[in-house]
């Protein structure tokens, strides 16, 4: 429940970007930051929370995260200006780390086949939370405004924080370390933030702008130092040697490639749904109908997640991972080859994209868990989440640049060709994931439930 609520809060920015743009009288680029900043914070701090999940401070870390997310929702609800609203959205990004916390807890306390199913399900809770929250968020935002949407999310998250404080089990192994690799945490956070900032803002600042190049160089240097530190410290923030295992490497590279489509396709569909028909692709739908268009996210991810277990048993990890990527690629391709923005095409695109993502991320988690020790579960899965968000930042930057480079006949909206090109970029990310799966993933079958 904690992960579902937090995931819904984190993803509030995607469907509400146009609403935020109107509310604060912003440009399209500036309004996109209401979504991007949440992903940046989530990406950079999730590995730290993942390591805490592997230690004895799991419960206080989870309670603290939920409390901060609730505070962030409150800030966004009462904000009179965009800077305060953004500060709230930044705090909400901490909720991304709850997925790693939940996966580590489940592995410790739910053994056997039930544990395998639960771990696979937890891997897609971000998408499930988004799918469940989108329709409700759209209704609330349309009827009562942004303040009600974020205020309600804050109340729910505060309730989850109380529930975790009362009922979350402690770490099973009392011998696990309690310390945190602070130098590694600072270096990874700073390096990831700088690189992601360069990626997300490169299209705005210019790819050769000193700010873009400075962030990129500083980030790469910080990450290089971080790698050197992690390989020599006794208790690293991230055990980098695990990447030498083929399944872990395949899962991490697939996460980057799939992240491009996972985070960008819903934004493109939302923009298509709300764009006027004069653009050549827009449906001109109201917020309530746009929310309904997003409902296949939850159902598709859940169905794909369940199918992943069957595919892994019959085709092995390689086949399950590649199948998920191929189905996910079909989602944005529907928007390319079926022009006009009809409601049924938007629903089909979301369903295929969500189904493929559910199968892929469910497989990735079971591959990682099967390859690492229990004490490394939170750390390894948090890195995978970080890499999904790196892919999301790459996708957001690439699709944003594609839209900006193809202005359409209606002011503030891209042309039909620009939108199709952005969709092709999402499909290309899924295609790369298929290739990585077939080349790197082991043939062996991943653990699956027998009952």
Automatic annotation (TrEMBL):
Q: Name one GO molecular function term.
A: transmembrane transporter activity
* Matching InterPro entries: MFS, MFS_dom, MFS_trans_sf
Could you tell me which residue ranges the Major facilitator superfamily (MFS) profile domain spans?
A: 1-445
Q: Where in the cell is it found?
A: Cell membrane
The annotated topology with respect to the bilayer is: Multi-pass membrane protein
Where, by residue number, does the polypeptide cross the bilayer? 32-49, 61-79, 85-106, 118-141, 147-168, 180-199, 211-229, 249-269, 281-303, 315-338, 344-373, 385-406, 418-441
Major location (coarse): membrane
> Could you name the domain of life of the organism this protein comes from?
Bacteria
Q: Which Pfam families match?
A: MFS_1 (PF07690)
Q: Name one GO cellular component term.
A: plasma membrane
Q: Which UniProt keywords apply?
A: Membrane, Transmembrane, Transmembrane helix
PANTHER family on file = BLL0718 PROTEIN, MAJOR FACILITATOR SUPERFAMILY MULTIDRUG TRANSPORTER MFSC
**What protein name applies here?**
MFS transporter
């Amino acid at each position: 429940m904690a992960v579902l609520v937090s995931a819904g809060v984190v993803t509030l920015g995607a469907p509400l970007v146009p609403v935020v743009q109107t509310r604060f009288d912003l440009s399209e680029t500036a309004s996109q930051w209401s979504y991007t900043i949440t992903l940046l914070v989530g990406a950079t701090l999730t590995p730290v929370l993942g390591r805490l999940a592997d230690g004895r401070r799991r419960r206080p870390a989870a309670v603290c995260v939920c409390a901060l997310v609730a505070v962030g929702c409150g800030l966004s609800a009462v904000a009179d200006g965009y800077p305060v609203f953004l500060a709230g959205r930044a705090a909400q990004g901490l909720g991304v780390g709850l997925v790693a916390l939940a996966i580590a807890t489940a592995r410790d306390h739910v053994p056997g086949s039930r544990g395998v199913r639960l771990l696979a399900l937890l891997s897609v809770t971000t998408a499930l939370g988004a799918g469940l929250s989108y329709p409700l968020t759209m209704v609330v935002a349309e009827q009562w405004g942004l303040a009600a949407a974020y205020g309600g999310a804050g109340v729910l998250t505060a309730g989850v924080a109380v529930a975790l404080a009362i009922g979350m089990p402690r770490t099973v192994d009392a011998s696990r370390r309690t310390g945190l690799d602070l130098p590694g945490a600072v270096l990874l956070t700073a390096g990831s933030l700088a690189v992601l900032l360069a990626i997300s803002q490169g299209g705005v600042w210019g790819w050769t702008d000193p700010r873009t190049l400075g962030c990129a160089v500083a980030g790469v240097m910080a990450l290089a130092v971080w790698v050197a530190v992690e390989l020599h410290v006794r208790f690293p923030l991230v055990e980098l040697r695990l990447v030498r295992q083929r399944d872990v490497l395949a899962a991490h590279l697939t996460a980057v490639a799939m992240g491009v489509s996972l985070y960008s396709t819903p934004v493109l569909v939302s923009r298509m749904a709300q764009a006027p028909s004069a653009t050549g692709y827009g449906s001109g739908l109201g917020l309530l109908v746009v929310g309904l268009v997003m409902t296949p996210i939850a159902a598709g991810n859940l169905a794909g997640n369940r199918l992943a277990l069957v595919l892994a048993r019959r085709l092995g990890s390689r086949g399950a991972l590649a199948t998920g990527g191929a189905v996910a690629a079909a989602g944005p391709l529907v928007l390319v080859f079926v022009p006009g923005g009809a409601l049924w095409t938007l629903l089909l695109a979301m369903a295929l994209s969500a189904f493929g993502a559910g199968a892929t991320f469910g497989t990735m988690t079971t591959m990682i868990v099967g390859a690492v020790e229990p004490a490394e579960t939170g750390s390894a899965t948090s890195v995978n989440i970080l890499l999904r968000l790196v892919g999301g930042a790459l996708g957001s930057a690439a699709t944003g640049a594609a839209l900006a480079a193809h202005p359409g006949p209606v002011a503030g909206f891209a042309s039909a060709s620009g939108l199709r090109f952005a969709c092709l970029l999402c499909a290309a990310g899924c295609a790369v994931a298929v290739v990585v799966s077939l080349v790197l993933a082991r043939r062996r079958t991943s653990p699956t439930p027998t009952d």
